[in-house]
Amino acid sequence: MQEKYDIIGVDYNATRKADPYLFDRLFSLLDPNPEGKYLDIGCGTGNYTSEFAKKGYTFIGIDPSIEMLEKAKLQHNAITWKIGKAEKIAMPSESIDGIIASLTLHHWQSLRQGFSELNNVLKPEGKIVIFTATPHQMKGYWLNHYFPKMLKDSMEQMPTYDTIESNLEANGLRIDNTEKYFIKPDLQDLFLYSGKHNPKLYINPKVRHGISSFSSLANAKEVAQGLKTLEQDIATGEINNISTTYENTEGDYLFMVAKKA
User: Fold this and answer.
1) Backbone angles phi, psi at 33, to 5 degrees
2) Quick check: 1 pLDDT over 60?
3) Which residues have a Cβ under 8 Å from the Cβ of 153 and sit 6 or more positions away?
4) How far apart are CA 93 and CA 119, in angstroms?
5) What secondary structure does DSSP assign to 213-258, as a single string?
6) pTM for the predicted model, two decimal places
């Protein structure tokens, strides 16, 4: 079966780059050891994996998309890139010092099985650093005004905080700390809510192509109409009034650090 990102991955790196701030937070929260071995699960085209490798850290990138991994190899062919999923990593027990999982949980078929696998390969003192968005946070995206069905579908796919926590705990893992992330105006990794401060980004088809929600054919009609309205509201300035009504303190995304219980 062709993976969703085998299609999206064709021009993925045109808009999805390693953001310096996000990398800095991933690095700080993971706190890797130069002598350790680390895993990037759902690595995509390896943008963040490659940044760690450039600093001299040993990383393995795993992703189910062949297209994505072919792009990853072009960036850094010294990294070990493997086809695979969180639910079936096929690596030795307690062989990994730490794991990053960035914007990938909502693509897993089973959080329970995925965390079971991660716990199995993780050493006793290892960490899992997760970057995700919760449905609760996503209700605060002004995108809901223009693309209500698309956001509803995305929120249904995105696991809640409680779901993540319960599945971690069911596999001998616990949340050690969390950190809210609010979209910054200079964000370079153009994922779903990257246009929070710059709505014009969504008018660019290349940006939308790199975002799975916008790329879903099931949302095509609504997206077309929503973009038309958004473009009008950008021109009149009405977008500023709409976005203001969605301001909140919940954070747009969330870092979660999990450890073995």
Assistant:
1) -95, 130
2) no
3) 213, 216, 218, 219
4) 9
5) HHH-GGGHHHHHHHHHHHHHHHHHTHHHHHHHHT--SS-SEEEEEE
6) 0.92
In 3D space, the residue among 8, 3, 2, 6 whose CA is nearest the CA of residue 215 turns out to be: 8
| CA–CA distance, 234 with 226 (Å, rounded to integer) | 12
Q: How far apart are CA 52 and CA 35, in angstroms?
A: 13
Give the torsion sign (CA, 244, 248, 249, 254): negative
pLDDT digits (tens, 9 = 90+) for 66-119: 988 998 988 877 899 999 999 999 899 999 999 999 999 999 999 999 999 999
CA distances to 78, 104, 193, 200 from 74, rounded to whole Å, are 10, 22, 27, 30
CA 22, CA 183: separation in Å to the nearest integer? 10
